[in-house]
Amino acid sequence: MNFVRFFLLFGLLLSTAAFGARDGGGYGGGLAPVSNPRTPEEMAIGEYNAGVKQRDKAWEYEQRAKPLEDGKKKEKFLKKAQKAYKKAIGRFEKAVEYDPRMYQAWSALGHGLRKTGSYDRALEAYNNALDINPDYHEAIEYRAEAYLHLHDYEAVKAAYARLKKEHPEYAGQLMQAVQEWLPAQHADNNLELRAFARWAARQQ
Description:
It is built from nine helices and no strands. By secondary structure, the chain is mainly alpha-helical. The longest helix has 28 residues, at about 70-100. The radius of gyration is 17 Å and the shape is globular.
């Protein structure tokens, strides 16, 4: 088991380095694969890696949809992305069943749930990841994006302040997500949202 844990942690270092700002919320690779998995921890790694593959497919479909002007074609790719995210969610759920301490899988599960609009469930998954590893900055940034969609602006600002101090790269990703989200909102008669938009503008 200790040997597997070593690979898990080593894989985490590699996947953390691979995280980027593909969709404003970060996007990471899998953990070091295990041949002929036997233990629950090894099974969890296998399910996690399978989930990452589905998540990568979803991201690719989203990127193909972005530049399209044809509504039907765009919708086709977005539906494929949602289908892939749902498959990823199933894999990540199995991963945390096998190994409830795998915070990477909890965070990835939150990402999939957020992408499919299940923001409350996403928060639960992120909270589980951060209960295990409070300094997992990917989950802090991911969770803040869920807070954003739930209009918990104070939680977003608190996460941004922490990330700016501890991990500026993820603070930048969060602010990018905020700036992409704001134009679609209707702030005319929403004083709280207007105040949040002014705060975001001052961070530029």
